[in-house]
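Good morning,

Attaching, inline, the backbone tokens for the sequence recovery test we're adding to the shared suite. The designed sequence is right after.
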């Protein structure tokens, strides 16, 4: 899906460039150009949302595949065998178990996805 949106967006960008080079900037149809630019903007936003969805899907998948965690009540994850943990909390060494799927997601991500993941993490801190 992302590839199709990306291709469409680039086709519209090429069309805009062609129209400007054919007619000259002084003779472009402003209304038509505005509609083309709006389509590029809308496709760019759709592309971004698809990348975001892929990112969250890969992080969720990596977290599900990581060992040592079981789904607690109300959706909180708790280390398995750690019955006395308060919901949502884990022992101090638990962060290393969370890092495994994150490192895998970063390793397999495209440069754009990697930058997005890093920015999301910075926003959390």
């Amino acid at each position: 899906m992302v590839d199709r949106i990306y291709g469409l967006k680039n086709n519209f960008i090429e069309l805009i460039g062609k129209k400007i080079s054919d007619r000259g900037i002084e003779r472009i149809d402003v209304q038509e150009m505005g509609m083309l630019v709006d389509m590029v903007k809308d496709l760019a936003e759709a592309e971004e949302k698809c990348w975001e969805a892929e990112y969250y899907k890969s992080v969720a998948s990596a977290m599900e595949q990581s060992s040592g965690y079981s789904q607690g009540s109300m959706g909180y994850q708790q280390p398995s065998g750690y019955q006395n943990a308060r919901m949502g909390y884990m022992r101090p060494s638990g962060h290393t178990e969370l890092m495994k799927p994150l490192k895998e997601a970063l390793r397999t991500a495209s440069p754009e996805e990697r930058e997005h993941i890093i920015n999301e993490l910075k926003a959390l801190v």
